[in-house]
User: Which sequence fits this backbone?
């Protein structure tokens, strides 16, 4: 009978480029919470990279959770601009990174998505925990389980660092 | 939805006030989504709405300037009986 050591190690040797989504919907820092929500509804995507319009440099990421926690729960207007509640300088990865490295970042930062950037720091794609689970349920499961681990005191959730207005 | 990976910002936001809601729109892609998914008229209703949808498509494809979509969007909003608030009106049409 085959033991665990007989499994091909291909899942951990896979690269981000093999599993990421290449279709990236980006938003601008001056877009509003409501316009981002409308785009999320249409595309079914819950995390959108924020880029400098016309330049393409990625500044951070905004998630559906950011809208709930930082706008709705705070009682802010739905016209609140993205730059007021986005996660600035979100952790990113590159296409050539291993999915093990991407999974490690997700685990350490308790995040479910990473923006994949190219050498110009433009968005090349996005990799979600679901993408990792699809190709490596074991690795993805470890990350997912890590999300529910005890939270150290004073650690910010999901790397949230609101941009100063 | 490859078209939605592109957006073209307007020179100024348009704020629509309807019954119990306020829509703030400042880009062509967002206008398209409002017209398509959040409009108080059924699909196929409204000439101005159809024209605005077509204008948004053209602008996103790069065949027209963003403020053309903005102007068409304002006309569609008036047709749908939104109260339209903007400083510069429907320039571009």
Assistant:
């Amino acid at each position: 009978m085959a033991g665990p050591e007989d499994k091909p190690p291909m899942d951990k040797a896979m690269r981000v480029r093999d599993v990421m989504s290449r279709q990236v919907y980006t938003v601008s820092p001056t877009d509003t919470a409501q316009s981002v929500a409308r785009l999320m509804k249409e595309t079914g995507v819950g995390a959108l990279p924020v880029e400098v319009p016309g330049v393409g440099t990625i500044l951070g990421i905004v998630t559906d959770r950011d809208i709930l926690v930082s706008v709705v729960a705070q009682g802010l207007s739905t016209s609140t601009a993205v730059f007021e509640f986005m996660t600035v300088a979100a952790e990113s990865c590159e296409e050539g990174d291993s999915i093990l490295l991407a999974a490690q970042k997700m685990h350490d930062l308790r995040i479910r998505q990473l923006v994949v950037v190219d050498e110009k720091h433009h968005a090349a794609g996005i990799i979600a925990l679901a993408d990792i689970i699809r190709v490596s349920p074991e690795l993805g499961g470890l990350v997912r389980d890590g999300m529910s681990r005890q939270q150290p005191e004073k650690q910010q959730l999901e790397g949230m660092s609101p941009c100063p207005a | 939805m490859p078209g939605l990976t592109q957006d073209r910002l307007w020179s100024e936001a348009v704020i629509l006030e309807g019954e119990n809601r306020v829509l703030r729109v400042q880009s062509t892609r967002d206008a398209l989504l409002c017209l398509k998914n959040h409009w108080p008229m059924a699909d196929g209703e409204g000439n101005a709405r159809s024209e605005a949808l077509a204008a948004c498509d053209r602008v996103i494809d790069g065949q027209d300037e963003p403020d053309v979509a903005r102007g068409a969007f304002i006309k569609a909003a008036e047709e749908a009986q939104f109260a339209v608030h903007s400083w510069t009106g429907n320039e571009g049409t």
